[in-house]
C-alpha cells in the first residue's frame, strides 16, 4: 500500500512520511549498549562472584557530552546514518544554483559531505557552501536537538521515561488534556526535561493516540467541536463496550462477559513492531475492556521463525527499562555485537525509496501461526487475558471477506496511521490523464479498501504527520470514488494532543522534518436511513 520511488519534490515529501515511521525505531537503541558491556578483564573466577544487586548502569556518555559530529559519534549506528545521508542528500546550495538553470553551471548538485559544526549533520557539499547558506539557520537547532537525542538514547543512562506504569488505581481518573496531565494522572515517572518528553511521546504516541480518541474522557468533545454529533453516536457505541454502563465499576471482573474490542490497524508498519508491553498501555486505560489488535498491511512485522536460536534473556534484564523499539532488534544487535568485533558497522537501512518492513519481532512464548486461519502470513499472541495481538502481512482487501459479516460499530474500529491518501500512487496512473492517481483512489493502494471500511459503519480514524499532510489527505476525500459523499465526519481534522514531540529527519534531505501522528481525524460511512427504529438506531 505504500509508495516505492519518488521523482519530484512532492514525492520526496511523500517519502518523508514513509521514512519517518520506520526511522522511529531504527534510530533508538538504548539497550544495545547496556546489553553489551565493555569487555573488561573478566577472569574465570569472577564469573562466580555474586552480582551486586541492581547496579545503576554506567552511562557511556554524560549529559553534557551528547553532541558529536555524525562521523565522530562513538556509536556505529549514528556513523552509519551519517554515511547514508552523504550518499542520499544533495547539497541545498548546489541544488538552488542548479535551479537557476545557469547554462554554464548545469552540473547535478553534489552530495552533502561537510558536517555543520553546530548540528553535527552532513548538510552541505563543502564548508564554503555551508557558510554561504543563510537558510540552514532555520534547521540547525532542531537538527542539533535530534543529534543529542540520538546520543542520549544510546548513552547507557537509565531511561526512566521508558518505565511504564502498571494498572491504574481505580480511584484516580485519567485525564487526556495533554501529555503532561496524562503522564501525571497515569503515574508515569515525572518527565523533567524536554528530552524525556520527546523520548516518551515517541514511544507512546501510537497506543495513546488510540486510547485518547476512544476514551470517555477524550479531549475531542462536542464542546470544542472536534467531535461531531454524528461522531458522538459512534463514540457512544464504542464506549458502551469500553466502559460498560454508567455507574458500573470498571474492573477486570466486569469485562468477563463482554465482547472484545477489535481495533484494525491498517497499513501498519513500525506500530506493528512495538513491543506488546507498550500496546498494553492502551489496555490499561480501559480496565473493563478486552482488546484484540489486528495489524494488517504488507509491511507488518512478523515474529522470527521458531526454529531460530532461542533468545535467552540478557543478564542485564533486571535493569527495568522497556525498550522503545522492538526488543527483537535489541536482542539481534546485542547478540550480533557479542559475536563480532565491536567496531563492525551495524546494518543501516536508509529507508528512502521504500521504508523497510520492521525487523521480525520477538517470538512470544504463546505466539502461534495463524496462516491456516487467515490464509496469509500471520501470527496471533494472547499476550494477557486483556490483550490479544494478531499480525497479518498482506493487503487488507485480501482478508476483508473473513471479517465482512462480523463488523459491529459497538466493538470495532479502524485506525490508519499516516496512510498517505493524498499522495500520488507510485504504481497506478489515470487512464484518461496518465497522471499518477492519488493513493486514496488507486487500485494498488487505498482505492478498493476505503469503500469496504465505510460500508462497515465502524469509525475510521486517521493520523497525519503535519498540518499540510492532514490537509492533503482530507482534500483527497472529495475526489475519491466510493468515498466522496459517502461519509460523515466523526472527528474533525486537527492537532493530536498525543502526537510524538520528536522531529523525524529525512535521510534524503535533512531539511525535511515531520512529527509522527501530528494530527488526527475520523470518519464513518454515511447513514442512509432517515427514520430509524429506536434502540438500534445508532447506525
Ligand atoms: Zn554545494
Ligand atoms: Zn547546522
Automatic annotation (TrEMBL):
Domain of life: Eukaryota
Pro residues biased stretches: 303-313
The Mitochondrial splicing suppressor 51-like C-terminal domain, residue ranges: 238-505
Mitochondrial splicing suppressor 51 zinc-finger domain boundaries: 91-153
Annotated spans, Disordered: 302-356
PANTHER family registered for this protein in UniProt: GH20023P, PROTEIN MSS51, MITOCHONDRIAL
Protein name, as recorded: Uncharacterized protein
Organism listed in the record: Hericium alpestre
Lineage: Eukaryota, Fungi, Dikarya, Basidiomycota, Agaricomycotina
Amino acid at each position: 500500500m505504500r509508495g516505492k520511488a519518488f521523482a519530484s519534490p512532492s514525492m520526496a515529501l511523500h517519502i518523508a512520511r514513509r521514512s519517518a515511521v520506520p526511522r522511529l525505531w531504527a534510530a533508538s537503541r538504548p539497550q544495545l549498549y547496556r546489553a553489551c558491556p565493555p569487555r573488561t578483564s573478566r577472569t574465570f573466577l569472577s564469573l562466580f562472584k555474586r552480582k551486586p544487586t541492581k547496579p545503576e548502569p554506567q552511562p557511556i556518555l554524560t549529559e553534557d557530552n551528547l553532541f558529536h559530529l555524525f562521523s565522530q559519534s562513538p556509536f556505529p549506528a549514528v556513523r552509519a546514518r551519517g554515511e547514508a545521508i552523504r550518499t542520499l542528500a544533495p547539497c541545498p546550495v548546489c541544488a538552488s544554483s542548479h535551479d537557476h538553470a545557469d547554462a554554464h553551471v548545469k552540473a547535478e548538485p553534489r552530495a552533502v559531505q561537510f558536517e555543520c559544526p553546530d548540528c553535527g549533520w552532513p548538510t552541505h557539499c563543502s564548508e564554503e557552501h555551508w557558510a554561504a547558506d543563510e537558510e540552514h539557520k532555520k534547521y540547525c537547532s532542531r537538527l542539533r536537538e535530534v543529534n543529542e537525542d540520538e546520543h542520549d538514547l544510546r548513552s547507557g543512562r537509565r531511561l526512566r521515561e521508558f518505565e511504564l506504569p502498571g494498572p491504574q488505581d481505580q480511584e484516580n481518573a485519567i485525564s487526556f488534556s495533554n501529555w503532561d496531565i496524562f503522564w501525571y494522572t497515569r503515574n508515569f515517572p515525572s518527565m523533567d526535561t524536554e528530552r524525556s518528553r520527546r523520548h516518551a511521546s515517541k514511544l507512546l504516541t501510537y497506543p495513546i493516540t488510540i486510547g485518547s480518541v476512544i476514551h470517555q474522557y477524550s479531549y475531542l468533545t462536542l464542546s470544542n467541536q472536534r467531535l461531531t454529533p454524528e461522531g458522538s453516536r459512534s463514540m457512544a457505541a464504542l464506549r458502551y463496550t469500553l466502559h460498560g454502563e454508567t455507574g458500573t465499576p470498571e474492573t477486570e471482573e466486569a469485562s468477563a462477559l463482554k465482547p472484545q474490542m477489535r481495533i484494525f490497524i491498517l497499513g501498519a508498519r513500525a506500530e506493528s513492531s512495538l513491543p506488546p508491553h507498550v500496546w498494553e498501555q492502551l489496555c490499561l486505560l480501559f480496565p473493563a475492556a478486552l482488546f484484540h489488535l489486528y495489524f494488517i498491511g504488507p509491511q507488518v512485522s512478523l515474529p522470527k521463525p521458531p526454529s531460530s536460536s532461542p533468545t535467552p534473556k540478557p543478564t542485564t534484564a533486571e535493569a527495568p527499562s522497556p525498550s522503545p523499539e522492538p526488543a527483537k532488534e535489541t536482542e539481534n544487535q546485542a547478540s550480533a555485537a557479542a559475536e563480532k568485533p565491536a567496531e563492525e558497522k551495524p546494518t543501516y537501512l536508509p529507508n528512502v525509496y521504500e521504508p523497510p518492513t520492521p525487523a521480525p519481532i520477538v517470538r512470544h512464548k504463546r505466539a502461534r501461526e495463524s496462516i491456516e486461519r487467515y490464509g496469509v502470513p500471520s501470527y496471533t499472541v494472547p499476550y494477557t487475558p486483556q490483550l490479544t495481538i494478531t499480525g497479518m502481512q498482506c493487503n487488507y482487501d485480501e482478508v476483508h471477506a473473513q471479517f465482512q459479516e462480523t463488523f459491529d460499530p459497538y466493538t470495532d474500529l479502524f485506525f490508519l496511521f499516516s496512510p498517505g491518501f493524498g499522495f500520488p500512487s507510485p504504481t497506478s496512473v489515470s487512464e484518461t490523464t496518465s497522471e499518477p492517481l492519488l493513493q486514496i483512489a488507486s487500485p494498488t493502494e487505498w482505492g478498493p479498501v476505503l469503500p469496504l471500511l465505510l460500508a462497515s459503519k465502524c469509525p475510521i480514524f486517521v493520523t497525519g504527520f503535519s498540518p499540510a499532510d492532514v490537509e492533503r489527505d482530507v482534500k483527497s476525500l472529495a475526489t475519491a470514488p466510493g468515498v466522496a459523499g459517502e461519509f460523515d465526519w466523526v472527528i474533525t481534522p486537527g492537532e493530536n494532543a498525543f502526537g510524538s514531540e520528536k522531529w523525524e529527519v529525512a535521510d534524503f534531505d535533512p531539511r525535511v522534518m515531520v512529527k509522527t501522528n501530528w494530527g488526527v481525524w475520523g470518519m464513518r460511512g454515511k447513514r442512509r436511513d432517515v427514520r430509524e427504529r429506536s434502540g438500534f438506531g445508532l447506525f
